[in-house]
Amino acid sequence: MSQITFGYSDSEDRVWLASTGGTRFWLTRRLVNGLLRPTCDLLEKTVPGGDVPNALPASQRIAIEHEESLADSPEGLPAIEKNKETRGAGNAPVKPPALVTIVTVQADASRCAWIVTAAAKPARIEVNRLEFHRLLAALYRTAEAAGWGLANLPGWLTGRPRPD
């Protein structure tokens, strides 16, 4: 299985997305800002459990799902430790990064995907919901560390309540 990592290039003012297979993409500030909120909204709309009698509201179910996704892996390891050996810093990419022009988001009760289009070639990143939450959190943290000042995101992603 390919591992996905994010990083920030201050000289380009872009986030890079790279896979262990050597594929690397550039994500602009504008693209990331326009991607995070719709992704969060779709995850909330598709969060499982709405058919259960007296279920919590979707906003609370998604917050619980997100928190649990970041807490532990299915093997009981903290999420940060999972596949740590595959995240080598400083490895040169096999291909130069391609500028992403479109990202399409898909989600259902069990799987989620980003379809990333760069140079008119779509690449599909599809994982289970647990892993998707981890990807989303990693992208958010990378953009925050870059000082991009992303706004209007749900508290379950940012870790702080939204001002009303």
UniProtKB/TrEMBL annotation:
It comes from the Bacteria. This is Uncharacterized protein. It comes from Parasulfuritortus cantonensis.
